Amino acid sequence: MAKNSNHNELGDLGPQISVLVPVTFAAGDSAGFYDYLPPKKGGALIPGDVVRVPFGGRSLVGAVWGPGQGGVDKAKLKTITEKIDITPLSADMRAFIEWVARYNMASPGAVLKMVFNVPGALEKAKPQRGFVLTQGVEPSVRMTPARKRALDFMQGKPAMLAAEIAREAGCTPSVISGLFKAGALKEVAISTEHKWSVPDHKLPRAKLSSAQKNGAAEICSRIGNNNDGGSVTLIDGVPGSGKTEVYFEAIAKTLEMGKQVLVLLPEIALTAQWLQRFSARFGVQPALWHSDLGDAKRRETWRACSTGKVRVVAGARSALFLPLHEIGLIIVDEEHETAFKQEESVIYNARDMAVVRAHLGKFPIILVSATPSLESMSNAKSGKYHLVHLPERHGGASLPDVELVDMRTQKLPATRWLSDGLLESLKKVFDAGEQAMLFLNRRGYAPLTLCRACGHRLKCPNCSAWLVEHQTGRRLQCHHCGHSDSMPENCPNCDASHKFAPIGPGVERLAEEVKERFPNIRVTLASSDTLSGPLKAADLVKRIENHEVDLIIGTQVVAKGYHFPLLTLVGVVDGDLGLAGGDLRAAERTYQLLYQVAGRAGREQKQTQKPGKVVVQTYMPDHPVMQAIKAGSREKFVKAETEARQAMAMPPFGKLVALIISGSDERGVDDAANRLARCAPNIDGVQVLGPAPAPLALLRGKHRRRFLIKLKSNILPQPIVGEWLAKAGMNKSAPKGKHKGPQSVRVQIDVDPQSFM
Ligand code: ADP
Ligand code: ZN
User: What pTM value is reported for the model?
Assistant: First the structure.
């Protein structure tokens, strides 16, 4: 603890070293830093060094943060086991970890855990034993035909595995080991590391339109500029205006500067067409980072990011925590997407944290969207963000015509969902040999199953949610917890037999209606049930491009990004669906989704002379969202929505924080909520709403209560919430998995909530 003791072998860190350990503590807890004694062997440590340490009977990998904090009896301190041979975490990255923890009120240890979430990546892949000819050595063994074959084969060959030589030379591996023992072959380590091809920024590019060229030039002027300080550029352009082409220029420039690039995409598993375009532009695929990667690939990718072998990574939100030590640009495509928000463990918004990452690393970041969030638009308006605006579709294609169908006047029978107008439009498209898409954001067959005898609705046992029928009566699924069951024969309430009726349509049921109407049409379903990975998505894209499909019935997984030349009609089956939830962003989300879906139609008007058409079925044709969609006027919608938010001091004109209190014991959850209510902050400009049962009052067997804290935008929420939790005695708890009785109640803090469920 004595600060002036002998630290010649420790650089500036002193005799005790503070190590951040990747363990999760309760929300609001700042723990994760522990003092250790320096390792017995090896040189001095520096901040950022990755070390192995003993922790609670386990061995964990942590990061050196600085001099020890002291205050612990030296005799009780443990010793760092070893330094791991990997690039240290940069000062930027360490500052980022602290920032993410502070802002989202998570423990730094929990954030570090997201960085070090790839066990095994820290270990170099073990080289394998290979063999080559020993030059100029006369083997002192009896020469057999097999041995001769092996030696002849190895003439002029690089090192190979014994099994490979044996296979090629037609002998057994024991022949190889015999030759090795005799000195005719010698051992050489073979690296098993994947060769990462380097994207080529010099390949020919598309000839840019002048708007594209100006946008690209403006952004490129900020790349590699050391004084950039983390500039944010919003590329706001209609679908098909060439936003991707423009940011490809920025990627090329960054690669030219010798820096790494991170591209965050909302649904990396479904970006087949994006990957094709990337390889067409840069000659190779980027490294990918998403939850479907196998363990080996995950380890390799993580390590190659850290060593700099990977130059471009495209990934889902967690890619933000990859150790890209030479990063020089981040792109967040479809920046308005909710998929960037992580709702579990550390709750954070990857888009917002990416802006912070760029700021701390002093490199530029580009946010991209056809329907930017109100937050980003207001930052562009105030001049905080640079704006590149691409108002026109490339090649002069106009945006599709939008027709609203007022469903109140349609009087459809209860088992039909397609209006005459929409059916008519479909028929025209099929007759013309073009393609159509029906959009309905509901997976499965029917969203609700009802007993016709007693009215009982089939409910998930673990959640406040209806069970969704899949595959025509065969399975019931909960879309929140994954609970799955076969359809019961008798009603659990009144025991009536075979009285269940499906209520409402999912995409599967819609396919039935379409097939009745158009028996010869080739229909394909596209939802997360059928598109469960990149391969399936790529296959679907190919089938649509090859015109093996006439009609796509899809959920939001097909709403964005795709470009299908023959697709000329998009039908939105239930335009009101997104408005039902009534949360803060319902209108904004619905507008974004409908706009994106509409953008799928008629994308190659110029080449094909086929303008696109969009038919939206709605019970609220006068709603501002529907009116804006019809008028094709985003400005109108944005203005109305902005004014409404401003009037209510809602984001981006105010701040929100949500607290979610959950646990399996309902009494305990209510007690905790009431305790929090009693010491709620009483501060000017801070309003506490709640506690209220969450809309999903029961989720995965846990009861849930919510508080919503509304703050004036000039008030920092974190200290207020932190103090509140401390006052209620709810800011400290043991690391996960320890001392967690059945009565335990969990408090989650959601800064800038996106979901109000
Ligand atoms: P966005 O990202 O705005 O939706 P894209 O970059 O995907 O737009 O462009 C839409 C389509 O137009 C793509 O097929 C793209 O290849 C094409 N395109 C865009 N700009 C150009 C250009 N300058 N030259 C040739 N094709 C272009
Ligand atoms: Zn459930």
Answer: 0.84
